[in-house]
């Protein structure tokens, strides 16, 4: 694609990436979904255990630990009455009917262009734009580990980022334009680095570190955009693909990619990345952690499956009618970095430079 | 426990005179012991010298197992302060702990076969002949001279007694060796002097002291076997023999260790151990940044003066340096490497672009960060460091009643404004005229050494008039340092004092001669070191008096030429 006249280039390394949350009082009128311990007791009932039996399980769990319950939960799927792994085959479990969010606000973009006419549309608390499509936030917004804000990151996403930042090659964002301090055209490039995110000794992301760009084309994304009033917005909404980490999803795939990015005074930047994402990829990332994730961090994984399925809002499958994608928005924070083509470095090393 | 008590006694017996250690810390006292010549100097080994000797004699894998007492800086150098320090009771304990730790490793089953050149007749009893062979060999290297018969008998006897009481030959040898390592004869360098054979009435160092002078000067370690052989054969008393050894040592890769040690001393890099920045304001700056900053400058100097054999003054102007990713982030320059994730940073050759404000070591973090406060830069500290460290000029201490309110007043956005207000007080103005112009030229570097163009939102003005020259910023300051006559005269003064243990006013003709030779060589440091190592004056007993601060040929003068007795440690 044609690049904007590139007289100035700024690169950033992503220093936080997680679901963009905007939780507030009253956005879950039906209440917050149960904790995993409470949900497991409900699941026991769904499996056919009576009140006395469930009480006995609960008593034993308090006194000796919850191993008996957990063992039953790990095999709570049923096919022909036989126990089945529920994480791999979530539809072998009856939908626990976790509730979704009904609040007014969510970060994101009007992906379908329906604006105020979109009955499912949120209002973005930052841009005040109506018709925001962010069904991923709606789906998980009443499950405890996913509630939070941009500043108070949801527990799950904060934990996930803590795992990813030291184990996943960093993501790079490069802006090129004539003068990035003025309004005008800009080219926004997303790449994957070969190095992990570097941190300061206090754990904060380190500014101005050099990262080599992974030449793998699967993680190379270029979008045309513009700067208006100090905010970068992608104006060409193509597909986004970035290799990620199985802990969250092996790949982050988005359609109708939207991105806004604003500069901070300290040189860092923050923004929102949104688009339609295959919801099964999201689900299987959660499911891959199995019971350990379910107990410790994610909450009822089968419940999440049904939340995603019910709230998916794009790309209806022509055969089943089920939507395959869900609108999603992610919070992006980034600090200044140098993005260096890996081939340059390897060539230099090869000639002993 | 029994062995430890026993060992203490044996070591004390073997050391013979350890109680006199504090007395031996004075050159005058040592002269009296030698009974031959005045002004013989006694210098405590620096921590690095101690480590180097142990590594040279026993190998680099030997762990010391202790810590050293702080060194003292005098006349701008730890090498001069080494003749003014003693050993405290705690320090003595540490030396003894290290001696035991080292000795235990030498005689352990893993190493004894390599370290001890013979096998005892029986492992459960003394073997004086074998012990003697070992003690002669290592004693010569540790004491930088052959052991006297009495010394040898004492250590062999101590080892025999140890073997008898412990029932183990190697434990006995270990105790004897620990005694040798605890001795002031190892811990202190002693200049032994005698009358010159020409009956001129002058004194000169004996051959072994000459060998030590050479070796510590050029390699920052004790003499190797070849140098000791040259001392034994009398070669070092002849011009040709001395030149042969000097050439050999200058050609050795070990010269780098000597040059590094000198610049670490001259530039006060020992202060890095206490360098800290406010991590709330400067989260990037860590102990690794400090370590790397020091190493960056040392690598740059070694590259310029040794590898490239360049003009010493180029270290103030060169854009060529070495960086790690740690430093590159602080300097905000790209530096990608092919190191795998998690691997330690590698050093990469780097050249700052012509338009980059960084040129020369004054723009390195080793200067800008070292000579700053934890949370804010300091033109005054930087300017003072340039005057004292690079130019050997004396900056008077601030008066006791100085008022710091103005210089700390945040209503003034930039350092220039704060200092201007502060210097409006007459009592402050004099010194700040000396220090601040150079420091203001470096104000583009914050206290962590990162480039900036504003302070508190206000543009930074780095123009100044420095010793009569208009300069616009860091690169101009480096060029001014390159051209300043004090730059080279100071180096000559410092390196001569470093090698010899001090210089006095009476050394002025020698220093002038060296300055001339240095200039003639194109300011090549190895040539200067060679001229020093080949000069008679280098082997004359070092003065107890302090050094002159500036050379006679180094205008303009600042303040007085009163010697600096000790240097600040801020």
Q: Could you describe the 3D structure shown?
A:
- The complex is a heterodimer of chains A (353) and B (570).
- Chain A folds into two domains: 8-20 and 165-350, no CATH class; 36-92, no CATH class.
- Helix content of chain A is 25%, strand content 31%.
- Chain A is built from nine helices and 13 strands.
- In chain A, the strands form two sheets. An eight-stranded antiparallel barrel of chain A has the order 1-4-5-7-8-10-11-13, surrounded by four helices. Chain A has a two-stranded antiparallel ribbon with strand order 2-3.
- In chain A, α1 (36-46) crosses α3 and α6 runs antiparallel to α8 (301-311).
- Chain A is globular, with a radius of gyration of 22 Å.
- The mean pLDDT of chain A is 93.
- Chain B is mostly helical.
- Chain B has a domain at 2-190.
- Chain B is built from 25 helices and ten strands.
- Chain B has helices at residues 2-15, 21-24, 27-34, 47-58, 78-81, 89-106, 112-115, 128-143, 149-166, 169-182, 184-187, 207-219, 225-233, 239-251, 255-266, 287-307, 325-331, 365-368, 379-390, 415-423, 426-441, 474-483, 485-500, 508-520, 525-534, and strands at residues 42-44, 188-190, 193-195, 203-205, 320-323, 348-351, 454-455, 458-459, 464-466, 469-471.
- Chain B has a two-stranded antiparallel ribbon. In chain B, strands 3-4 form a two-stranded antiparallel sheet.
- In chain B, a hairpin with a 2-residue loop joins β9 (464-466) and β10.
């Amino acid at each position: 694609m044609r690049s904007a006249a590139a007289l100035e280039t700024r690169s950033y390394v992503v220093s936080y990436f997680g679901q963009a949350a905007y939780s507030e009082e009253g956005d879950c009128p039906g209440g917050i979904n149960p904790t995993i311990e409470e949900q497991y007791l409900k699941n026991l009932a769904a499996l056919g255990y009576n009140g006395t039996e469930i009480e006995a399980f609960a008593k034993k769990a308090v006194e000796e630990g919850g191993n008996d319950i957990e063992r039953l939960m790990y095999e709570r799927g049923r096919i022909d009455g036989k126990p089945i792994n529920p994480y791999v085959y979530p539809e072998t479990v009856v939908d626990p009917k976790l509730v979704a969010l009904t609040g007014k606000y969510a970060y994101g973009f009007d992906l379908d262009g329906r604006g105020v006419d979109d009955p499912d549309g949120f209002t973005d608390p930052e841009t005040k734009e109506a018709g925001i499509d962010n069904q991923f936030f709606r789906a998980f917004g009443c499950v405890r580990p996913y509630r939070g804000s941009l500043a108070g990151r949801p527990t799950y996403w904060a934990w996930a980022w803590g795992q990813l930042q030291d184990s996943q090659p960093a993501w790079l964002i490069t802006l090129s334009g004539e003068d990035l301090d003025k309004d005008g055209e800009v080219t926004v490039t997303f790449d994957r680095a070969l190095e992990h995110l570097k941190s300061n000794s206090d754990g904060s992301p380190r500014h101005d570190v050099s990262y080599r760009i992974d030449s793998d084309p699967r993680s190379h994304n270029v979008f045309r955009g513009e700067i208006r009033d100090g905010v970068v917005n992608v104006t060409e909404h193509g597909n986004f693909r970035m290799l990620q980490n199985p802990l969250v999803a092996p790949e982050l795939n988005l359609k109708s990619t939207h991105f806004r990015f604003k500069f901070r005074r300290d040189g860092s930047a923050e923004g929102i990345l949104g688009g339609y994402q295959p919801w099964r990829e999201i689900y299987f990332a959660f499911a891959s952690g199995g019971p350990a994730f379910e107990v410790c961090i994610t909450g009822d994984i089968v419940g999440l499956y049904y939340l995603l399925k019910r709230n998916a809002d794009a790309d209806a499958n022509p055969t089943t009618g089920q939507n395959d994608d869900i609108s999603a928005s992610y919070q992006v924070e980034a600090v200044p970095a140098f993005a260096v083509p890996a081939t340059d470095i390897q060539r230099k090393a090869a000639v002993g430079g | 426990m029994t062995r430890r008590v026993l060992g203490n006694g044996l070591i004390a017996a073997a050391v013979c005179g350890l109680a006199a250690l504090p007395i031996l810390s004075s050159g005058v006292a040592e002269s009296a012991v030698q009974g031959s010549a005045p002004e013989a100097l006694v210098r405590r080994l620096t921590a690095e010298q101690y480590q180097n000797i142990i590594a040279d004699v026993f190998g680099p894998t030997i762990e010391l197992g202790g810590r050293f007492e702080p060194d003292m800086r005098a006349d701008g150098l730890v090498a001069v302060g080494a003749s003014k320090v003693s050993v405290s009771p705690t320090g003595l304990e540490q030396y003894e702990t290290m001696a035991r730790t080292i000795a235990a490793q030498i005689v352990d089953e893993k190493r004894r076969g390599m370290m001890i050149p013979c096998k005892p007749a029986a492992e459960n009893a003394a073997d004086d002949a074998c012990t003697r062979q070992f003690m002669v060999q290592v004693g010569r290297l540790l004491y930088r001279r052959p052991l006297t018969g009495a010394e040898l008998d004492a250590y062999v006897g101590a080892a025999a007694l140890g073997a008898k009481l412990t029932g183990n030959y190697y434990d006995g040898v270990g105790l004897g060796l620990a005694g040798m390592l605890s001795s002031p004869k190892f811990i202190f360098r002693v200049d032994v002097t005698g009358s010159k054979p020409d009956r001129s009435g002058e004194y000169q160092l004996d051959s072994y002291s000459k060998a030590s002078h050479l070796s510590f000067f050029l390699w920052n370690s004790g003499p190797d076997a070849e140098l000791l052989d040259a001392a034994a054969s009398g070669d070092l008393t002849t011009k040709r023999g001395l030149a042969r050894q000097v050439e050999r040592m200058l050609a050795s890769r070990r010269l780098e260790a000597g040059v590094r040690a000198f610049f670490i001393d001259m530039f006060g890099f020992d202060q890095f151990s206490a360098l800290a920045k406010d991590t709330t304001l400067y989260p990037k700056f860590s102990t690794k940044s400090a370590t790397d900053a020091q190493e960056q400058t040392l690598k740059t100097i070694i590259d310029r003066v040794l590898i490239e054999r360049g003009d010493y003054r180029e270290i103030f102007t060169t854009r060529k340096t070495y960086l790690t990713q740690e430093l590159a982030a602080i300097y905000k320059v790209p530096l990608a490497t092919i190191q795998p994730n998690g691997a330690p940073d590698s050093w990469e050759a780097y050249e700052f672009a012509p338009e980059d404000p960084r040129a020369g070591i004054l723009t390195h973090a080793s200067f800008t960060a070292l000579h700053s406060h934890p949370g804010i830069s300091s033109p005054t500290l930087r300017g003072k460091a340039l005057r004292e460290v690079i130019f050997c000029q004396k900056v008077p201490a601030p008066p006791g009643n100085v008022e710091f309110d103005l210089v700390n007043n945040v209503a003034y956005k930039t350092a220039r404004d704060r200092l201007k207000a502060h210097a409006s007080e007459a009592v402050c103005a004099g010194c700040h005229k000396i220090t601040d112009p150079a420091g203001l030229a470096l104000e583009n570097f914050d206290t962590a050494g990162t480039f900036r163009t504003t302070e508190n939102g206000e543009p930074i003005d780095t123009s100044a008039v420095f010793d009569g020259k208009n300069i616009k910023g860091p690169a101009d300051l480096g060029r001014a340092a390159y051209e300043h006559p004090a730059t080279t005269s100071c180096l000559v003064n410092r390196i001569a004092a470093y090698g010899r243990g001090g210089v006095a006013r009476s050394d002025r003709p020698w220093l002038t001669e060296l300055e001339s030779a240095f200039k003639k060589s194109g300011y090549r440091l190895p040539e200067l070191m060679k001229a020093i190592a080949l000069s008679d004056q280098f082997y004359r007993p070092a003065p107890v008096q302090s050094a002159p601060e500036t050379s006679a040929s180094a205008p303009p003068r600042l303040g007085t030429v009163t010697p600096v007795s000790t240097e600040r440690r801020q």
